[in-house]
């Protein structure tokens, strides 16, 4: 009895599964492979290389207007095919037109908005949030403060084990005006 050679898709799925890729990732990568094959009129990937990969990825960015993360996902699926399944170096992929990442402006609260938020807080939460905002402390720095770290007369606190593990003094004169410590 003669056995049929397994399809490229079946081999691809099996390679992904054997490396413990999630089922959803396997399905997504398979769809990218099918789309790549259709784009190149069902030519076998062994007959193609970096030119065809570049053409497909560029098409995704220019014609289909996919996001940068979507284009990167397609690239990852194709790199897995070439490197892990076919064991072929896909070649130079520098000529790809990359999809643009959207520019996002950081969202920052105004002073009035911060004041409104802080006024809604009470007790330890108000103190910690006041330290975070007014003193520029990181969360764990504020939560690890001890009474002996406070110098009310000098309007200072000592931060132990801050970022970089360096102890530093943090002047918090502005903090006293916005948060009551009593």
Element layout with pairings:
Layout: H1 8-18, H2 23-39, H3 50-62, H4 68-85, H5 111-119, H6 123-135, H7 139-143, E1 150-151, E2 156-159, E3 168-171, H8 173-178
Antiparallel strand pairs: 1-2, 2-3
Helix pairs in contact: 1-2, 1-4, 2-4, 3-4
Briefly characterize the structure.
This protein is mainly α and 182 residues long.
Describe the fold and architecture.
With 182 residues, the protein is mostly helical. The protein folds into 2 domains: 8-85, DNA polymerase, domain 1; 111-178, no CATH class. It has helices spanning 8-18, 23-39, 50-62, 68-85, 111-119, 123-135, 139-143, 173-178; strands spanning 150-151, 156-159, 168-171. A 3-stranded antiparallel beta sheet has the order 1-2-3, with no helix packed on it. Helix 1 (8-18) packs antiparallel against helix 2 (23-39). The longest helix is centred in the middle third of the chain and has 18 residues, at 68-85. The radius of gyration is 28 Å and the shape is elongated. The termini are far apart.
Keywords summarizing the entry:
single chain; 182 residues; mainly alpha; DNA polymerase, domain 1; three-stranded antiparallel beta sheet; 8 helices; elongated; disordered C terminus
Structural class: mainly alpha
Give the N-to-C terminal Cα separation. Answer: 87 Å
> Major beta sheet, specifics?
3 strands, antiparallel
CATH homologous superfamily descriptor of the largest domain: Tyrosine recombinase, N-terminal domain
CATH fold-level assignment of the largest domain: DNA polymerase, domain 1
Which spans have pLDDT < 50 for at least 5 consecutive residues? 171-182
Strand content: 5-15%
**What general outline do the C-alpha atoms trace?**
elongated
- Which range best describes the helical content: under 10%, 10-25%, 25-40%, 40-55%, 55-70% or over 70%? 40-55%
Oligomer: single chain
How many domain regions? 2
Q: What is the averaged pLDDT score? A: 85
The beta-strand count equals 3
């Amino acid at each position: 009895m003669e056995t049929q050679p397994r399809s490229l898709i079946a081999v691809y799925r099996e390679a992904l599964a054997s490396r413990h890729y999630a089922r959803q990732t396997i399905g997504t990568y398979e769809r990218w492979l099918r789309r790549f094959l259709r784009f190149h009129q069902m030519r076998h990937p062994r007959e193609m290389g970096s030119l065809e990969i570049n053409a497909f990825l560029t098409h995704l960015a220019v014609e289909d207007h996919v996001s940068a993360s979507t284009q990167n996902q397609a690239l990852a699926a194709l790199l897995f095919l070439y490197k892990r399944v076919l064991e072929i170096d896909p070649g130079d992929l520098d000529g790809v037109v990359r999809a643009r990442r959207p520019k996002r402006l950081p969202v920052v609260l105004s002073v009035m908005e911060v004041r409104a938020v802080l006024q809604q807080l009470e007790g330890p939460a108000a103190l910690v949030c006041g330290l975070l905002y007014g003193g520029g402390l990181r969360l764990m720095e504020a939560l690890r403060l001890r009474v002996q770290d406070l110098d009310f007369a000098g309007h200072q606190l000592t931060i132990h084990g801050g970022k970089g593990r360096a102890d530093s003094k943090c002047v918090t004169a502005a903090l006293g005006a916005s948060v009551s410590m009593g």
